[in-house]
Amino acid sequence: MKLKLIVLSLFLFTTSLLSAQVKFTAEVSREQIGINERLRVDFNMNKDGDNFTPPSFTGFKVVGGPNQQVSNSWVNGKSTFSKTYSYYLEPSAKGTKTIGQAEVTVEGTVYKTSPVTVEVGDAVERPQDGNNAAIVPEDNLHFVAEVSKPNPYLNEAVTVTYKLYVSERIGISNFRMLDNPTFPDFWSQALNMNSYRFEQGTYRGEPYRYAVVYKTLLYPQKTGKLEIDPVAISVAVDVPSQRRSIFGGVIYQTVEKRVTSPSREIDVKPLPSQGKPANFTGAVGSFEFSVDPSKTTLDAGESLTASVKVRGRGNLMLFDLPDLTVPSSLEIYEPERKENFSSTLNGTQGSLTEDYTIVPTRKGKYPIPGLNFSYFDPRSETYKSISTDDIVIDVENGPVGTPATSGSTTNSDSGVVSSNKQPVTLSGDQFRYIKLDANLKPINSASFFGSLLFWALLILPLLIIPLVIIFGKKREARANDVTGNRIRKADKLARKYLSEARKNLGEQQQFYIALERAMHNYLKAKLHIQTGEMSKERISEILSEKGVDQETTAQFIEILKSCEFARYTPASMVTMKQDYDKAANVISTLDKQL
Asked: Which domains does the chain have, with CATH numbers?
């Protein structure tokens, strides 16, 4: 009996010693891999330790990890602990590779793993990387920028489409842009993105799903090699893990993955100097040109509108129309510029119009010289010119204008000077507006003095005098209120430029296009800058030179960014109203500071 107790005690003591022993091991997912495959190595310990030090991984490149996993379990009254550090390795060359010793400190004692040998052979046809959250997104998620034309001309439209390619091996829950793309060397226009939809396609010869994330239209403003900066997005990726559900199904793990598109470079060609017309102002594309008067027959004092119009596809916002000139007897006013165009992947198309108001002052026929418009056609790589016919304005009624030519000649034989001026012919009815039949009537013989009309005319001026004095004081006070006048003028200016945007409240695309156009038109009117200088960096520089404070400049730039961003992000009515109010306040503040 005593012997049995002794044997049992020795067994229990040995078991307790074995259970208390620290185990620290290194395991690899495979001992033989191809040069194009990847390897997972796990460092496992059955007790929690400190100061874990991995090996140097000579001959491998670490492409994932370290990932840490801790497990505690209690079975039949026994506690089990496990802690694992996992790395994902990519071999750098073929041959026999050794993964060195890892170290960890447990209760003051340093433990080391045994070295592990891996054979790296030739590349295999179908690499096996295993299902892990660190590596799977790397190989199955790609964000690319597709450029429509890598070698365009200066001011020729280039479209950039950003696509997210997703392999069939993984799924994604969501993705979002991490920043608003900027293109410093281009005039850019973000294209509207109503929704995201995945379609079937291929990437490097393999089947993939892809979605268009962002589209933009660019017009290069410099020649030479220009770089399109990378754009980053964050993607929530669902990848299969090594765990299983109670029914044996794979449990998926969501990993937040940042994906960046590679930078792209385009080589912008200068416009050819050979054959460039003298009146060329930078138009590149395919256009039609016309000058259309609203009427050609009218009376002196009446007005007509002459519309100088370009329509077609190209850089409509980046060139000037030729100026309309008229004879001195026609008064002409500054034109009203109207922009009616939209941008798609095929470029910007629509029309650009300048409406001139013309008022004749004298009777006669006045020719308006035709105009010539030149543009560069990148398809034929040639310059083209369009000329319009002269327009004759017939002013039928009004003061007679001076003859077009006048002078005198001398008869060499007789020495008599003769004039070639034409005599003025009077029609006899030039004084018809004078009334010859007065049809006078006798004044009422009743006494005017003391009548109701007499007292009314006498007292009324006395009552008006105080009102005139009060009105004069208010007018003077208003005139002396410099700050108030500036505010009222600025508010009026803001309402003028933002009127079109206000009409489109509720229509997201039209509203933000009108809002952006209003901000640009305000700067053009106030600072006399061209549309080609409308980059955000240039606007900030100009406003800083004009003494505008940084806060107001930042608010102006922020509104422009909101206009670009809102074209591919849904916006509510409340957001549009807030952006409208911000724009009105910024224009008002800018006008006071300028």
From this structure: 18-121 (2.60.40.10), 136-268 (2.60.40), 285-395 (2.60.40.740), 482-593 (1.20.120)
